[in-house]
Automatic annotation (TrEMBL):
Annotated signal peptide: 1-26
Keywords attached to this entry: Signal
Name of protein: TraB/GumN family protein
Species for this entry: Ideonella azotifigens
InterPro entries, per database record: TraB/PrgY/GumN_fam, YbaP-like
Tagged with keyword Transmembrane: no
């Protein structure tokens, strides 16, 4: 089944730091940051008209940024059986300042015994599996010649040169989409999940992957040659028409403002649920994954003294979002507002107020 690229924006960028770009370094500000890999040399733009390559922050820059950090995103407190865990909605493409957790998020992370992510991209075994899954097979062409030429031209125009050669075409067009707002400072290099992973490792916390690389990559790939060509063609169309840019910009800005209402209304403004096929694809992308992730979160909560769960914010919205699913499992689910209550539709405690404002 073909899934247009706009429907993959919040999902695909999480994988791209493993395939392309710079994994940002982070740590407990009072500890030494762990080492991280440098950005691949082939991905560095040389044209002065191109967006500058991301530069990994130094330990001192991390500490200064942490001291000034503001809370962004969506945060819930989970309680059951005398244990407290946290559920945090992230974004996988961000501005550099956004990746540093603010006071409320930092307090929740510090107070948790373990961290759970969609994927821990600092796990070498996860990276090894992703690399194998995203590599282009050697047994024949994967795209019609005209479409392959169009994809190559788009990569040149995006200042990527040949950096993506050797990857599957669906991964290449997803990368183009995730990098489309680099000129506005939005880059998967500054994805919140990877920073949290680096910080948790630096603090000596155990880090879990809620999903497998195989399941995540399968969502990005076409089932056959026709589906593959549709994914790439639609992705290039949406980039050329500015649709991907508009969707990504609205999504990340809503996250930065902790704007639950805009995120919750994503199905109304994404222009992505116009057919039975699109609705089925969205169910696979979000609803079906949410059920499995809720079960995994429940298992972790039962055996740990506290788990900080950080996954993409679109997994938090609606009746099939993680807060609703965990509430149905018997958890006390309390919205932690950084400014004001989220309004109708968000799962919250009966008071509807922030935990830290009582």
């Amino acid at each position: 089944m073909a899934l247009p690229i706009r429907r993959l924006l919040a999902h695909s960028a999480l994988l791209l730091s493993a395939c392309f770009g710079l994994p940002a370094t982070a740590a407990d500000p009072v500890a030494e940051p762990p080492a991280s890999a440098p950005a691949p040399a082939a991905s560095q733009p040389v044209d002065p008209a191109c967006p500058p390559a991301p530069v990994e922050p130094t330990a001192e820059e991390v500490r200064q940024a942490m001291a000034q950090a503001r809370d962004h995103g969506l945060l819930w407190k989970l309680k059951r059986d005398g244990r407290t865990s946290w559920l945090y909605g992230t974004v996988h493409v961000a501005q550099r300042d956004w990746m540093f957790p603010g006071p409320a998020v930092m307090a929740a992370l510090r107070g948790s015994q373990e961290l759970a992510l969609e994927l821990d991209l600092l796990d070498p075994l996860i990276i090894e599996r992703l690399t194998a899954l995203t590599r282009q097979p050697a047994d024949g062409p994967l795209l019609p010649a005209a479409l392959a030429e169009r994809l190559g031209k788009a990569e040149q125009q995006a200042c990527l040169g040949g950096a993506l050669q050797g990857l599957r075409p669906e991964i290449r067009v997803a990368t183009l989409t995730a990098l489309v707002l680099r000129s506005e400072g939005l880059d998967p290099s500054w994805g919140v999940d990877n920073f949290l992973a680096s910080m948790a490792h630096g603090m000596g916390k155990k880090v879990h992957s809620l999903e497998s690389p195989e399941r995540q990559i399968k969502l990005l790939l076409g089932d056959d040659a026709a589906a593959r060509a549709t994914i790439v063609g639609e992705g290039l169309d949406e980039l050329a028409q500015g649709q991907a840019q508009r969707t990504l910009r609205r999504l990340v800005n809503a996250w930065a403002a902790s704007d639950y209402a805009t995120l919750a209304s994503y199905p109304q403004w994404c222009d992505c649920l116009n057919s039975a096929e699109q609705r089925q694809a969205m169910r696979k992308l979000l609803d079906e994954r949410n059920v499995a992730m809720a079960a995994a979160i429940a298992r972790l909560h039962q055996r740990a003294r506290g788990v900080f769960v950080a996954v993409g914010s679109l997994h938090m919205i609606g009746p099939h979002g993680l807060p609703a699913l965990l509430k149905a499992r018997g958890y006390e689910v309390e919205w932690v507002s950084f400014t004001a209550p989220p309004g109708p539709g968000a799962e919250s405690a009966s008071s509807g107020r922030a935990a830290h404002s009582k």
